[in-house]
């Protein structure tokens, strides 16, 4: 007996990009202390009041089957939040509650792509993107952004691959680069989508982590609301990664179709988690800013550390909880550097190559440890790069 081609082809015959991370976890399991700057997990836990509300909701009995599209009050709250942020009229009919952003990405592409359809995405990319597209039997095609453009994708590069494509997946603020797409970039993306009749899937899970510039949802641009599906999540904005709660915002007829998909796959999200998510959203923007503040602070620490040396440079980190560091001056690939850093100093980072070809020779550093340890780790990383250059 054999498994389906669909399931065996999710990784496309290659690595999932997490080899260095897995090596670090093996070292930790063997008793070797490792400083992990590899995964986008807050160093704080979900706030106690949110957990208390989750407990209250569970004890009150909201533990049975919940409304599959989402509890109406939560759908309303998400719609209000999205409308206030984007200026686009949004109601509960535009909202489907999902078990996290990853589930939303899968559902969105299941909704817009038929088997064999070409689905575009930007390289560098979050590690699950190609597998998600293969998982819905689409044909994933990468469009490279370039380090010399600070990884802002060029509209002409997207257009060159858009003929016959069905969809485009974008992510701003961006994981892994920390780049926030400019208005000009977003307008170029929107023009390509209109010109080539593409669905746009916009992953906006880092929309509360903006350090420079502003977040612009492409759904707000002319002619885009009817062809855009926005993916959101409580994971990054409210430190609720393990709660697995997110959403899709899109045209009502597409939401209706994805409700049918949810009925036959996830069967919704637990009611007590939805109640806690509603409670968390009602804490408002001030609370979201508190969750984001450590990453803003650590970004400033990174600027200070990097200004003292010339071996490592940083891609403009205008949002999200990551830094993209350029280590090409060492003559090493990002993967080789990451393995060497782990071996020499027990510091784990993600190679740029884990996120596609465009970020080769770079590292993704997650700003997810306490400030003083983060500063010391960056200093060690830069010193290691300087020692490698000195040996050339």
From TrEMBL:
Gene3D superfamilies: Aspartate Aminotransferase, domain 1 (3.90.1150.10), Type I PLP-dependent aspartate aminotransferase-like (Major domain) (3.40.640.10)
PROSITE patterns, alphabetized: AA_TRANSFER_CLASS_1
GO function term, MF aspect, one: L-aspartate:2-oxoglutarate aminotransferase activity
EC number: 2.6.1.-
Domain Aminotransferase class I/classII large: 34-377
CDD domains, per the entry: AAT_like
UniProt cofactor(s): pyridoxal 5'-phosphate
InterPro entries, alphabetized: Aminotransferase_I/II_large (IPR004839), AspAT/PAT-like (IPR050596), NHTrfase_class1_PyrdxlP-BS (IPR004838), PyrdxlP-dep_Trfase (IPR015424), PyrdxlP-dep_Trfase_major (IPR015421), PyrdxlP-dep_Trfase_small (IPR015422)
Catalyzed reaction equations: L-aspartate + 2-oxoglutarate = oxaloacetate + L-glutamate
GO biological process, one term: amino acid metabolic process
Pfam families: Aminotran_1_2 (PF00155)
Keywords: Aminotransferase, Pyridoxal phosphate, Pyruvate, Transferase
Keyword Cell wall biogenesis/degradation assigned: no
TM ranges: none
Origin superkingdom: Bacteria
Protein family per UniProt: Belongs to the class-I pyridoxal-phosphate-dependent aminotransferase family.
Official protein name in the record: Aminotransferase
Organism the protein comes from: Sulfitobacter noctilucicola
């Amino acid at each position: 007996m054999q498994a389906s081609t669909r399931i065996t082809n999710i990784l496309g015959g290659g690595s999932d990009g997490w080899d260095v991370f897995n090596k670090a976890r093996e070292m930790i399991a063997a008793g070797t202390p490792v400083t992990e700057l590899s995964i986008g997990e807050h160093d704080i836990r979900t706030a106690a009041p949110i957990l208390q509300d989750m407990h209250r909701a569970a004890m009150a009995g909201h533990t049975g089957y919940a409304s599959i599209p989402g509890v109406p009050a939560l759908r309303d709250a998400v719609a209000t939040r999205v409308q206030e942020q984007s200026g686009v009229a949004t109601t509960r009919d535009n909202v489907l509650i999902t078990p996290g952003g990853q589930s939303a990405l899968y559902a969105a592409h299941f909704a817009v792509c038929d088997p064999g359809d070409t689905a575009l995405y930007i390289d560098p990319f979050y590690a699950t993107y190609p597998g998600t597209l293969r998982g819905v039997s689409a044909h994933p095609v990468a469009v490279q952004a370039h380090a010399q453009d600070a990884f802002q994708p060029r509209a002409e590069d997207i257009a060159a691959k858009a003929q016959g494509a069905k969809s485009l997946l974008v992510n701003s603020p961006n994981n892994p680069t920390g780049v926030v797409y400019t208005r000009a970039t977003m307008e170029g993306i929107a023009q390509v989508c209109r010109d080539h009749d593409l669905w746009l899937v916009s992953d906006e899970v880092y929309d509360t982590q903006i350090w420079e510039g502003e977040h612009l949802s492409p759904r707000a641009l002319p002619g885009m609301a009817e062809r855009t599906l926005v993916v959101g999540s409580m994971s990054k904005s409210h430190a609720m990664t393990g709660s697995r709660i997110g959403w899709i915002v899109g045209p009502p007829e597409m939401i209706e179709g994805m409700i049918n998909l949810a009925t036959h796959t996830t069967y919704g999200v637990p009611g007590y988690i939805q109640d806690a998510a509603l409670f968390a959203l009602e804490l408002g923007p001030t609370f979201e800013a508190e969750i984001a503040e450590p990453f803003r602070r650590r970004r400033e620490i990174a600027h200070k550390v990097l200004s003292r040396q010339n071996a490592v440079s940083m891609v403009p980190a205008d949002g999200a909880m990551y830094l993209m560091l350029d280590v090409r001056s060492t003559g090493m690939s990002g993967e080789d550097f990451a393995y060497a850093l782990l071996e020499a100093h027990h510091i784990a980072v993600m190679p740029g190559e884990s996120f596609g070809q465009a970020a080769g020779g770079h590292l993704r550093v997650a700003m997810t440890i306490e400030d003083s340890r983060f500063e010391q780790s960056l200093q060690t990383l830069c010193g290691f790069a300087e020692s490698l250059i000195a040996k050339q």
